[in-house]
Amino acid sequence: MEIARRTNIGLVRDLNEDSTGLLQAKCGKIIAVLADGMGGHQAGDVASQKAVEEVLNYLGNVQLDIGTEEKKDQLLLAVGTANDVVYKLANQNTQYKGMGTTVLAAIFDIDEVVFAHVGDSRAYILHKDKLIQLTVDHTYVNILKEHGQITEEEARTHPQRNMLVRAVGTNKVVEVDLIDIPWSKNDIILLCSDGLTSMVSERDIGETLSDTMMTLDEKADKLIQLALDAGGKDNISLFLIRHTGNETIQMA
Hints:
Elements: E1 2-8, E2 18-24, E3 30-38, H1 43-59, H2 68-92, E4 100-101, E5 103-108, E6 112-118, E7 122-127, E8 130-133, H3 140-146, H4 152-157, E9 177-182, E10 188-192, H5 194-197, H6 202-210, H7 216-229, E11 236-242, E12 250-251
Parallel strand pairs: 1-12
Antiparallel strand pairs: 1-11, 2-3, 3-4, 3-5, 5-6, 6-9, 7-8, 7-10, 10-11
Helix pairs in contact: 1-2
InterPro entries: PP2C, PPM-type-like_dom_sf, PPM-type_phosphatase-like_dom
Pfam family, one: PP2C_2
Protein name: Protein phosphatase
């Protein structure tokens, strides 16, 4: 695997409320976590950092040389632990009241990737030059779109497009989507906050990831720059993980 990791405050926000974490487990599996906090002031920052810490701490201490369903179980427990911690902090400290965060966590193996997802951060796979979205946004606007009440174009500019219907830390119990996919040599996984996808079209993302002349590092940098060029209205964070055909880990 080859890995590139980026975060950028953007051009409008005073604080970067995104957090990312990366860990190689004892068995060799790679764990990547991305969180986009909400709550204003420093609350969103705290929520995302705590969520990433808790997920990595949990998964770093369990055996991950296990089957797909067992990985899903462990991811569910990890995100549940993060939810407990963030929810407790939000309820015990006035300055953190109402804070929460998206969480996108993934366990990478040589032949599969297993994800846990809450919120509107997204996972994509580029497979044979085709970009496929793997996650479903847990937003009010996405519910309207799925029920045919608004179009895709209307969803992009809807005044409530950032309203989450699911987040880590906002309720005592959180519902988590669990996804598993096979992957193989030359596939690229993109994990990103909505600071990228709200600014850059899927077509431009796909074209960037498909470019055979750029390194993975250059692709990561270009995605950040595309979001900035479009206005950079939010924090932008991403992982690019490319399957190289072997189990050696290489940071781009």
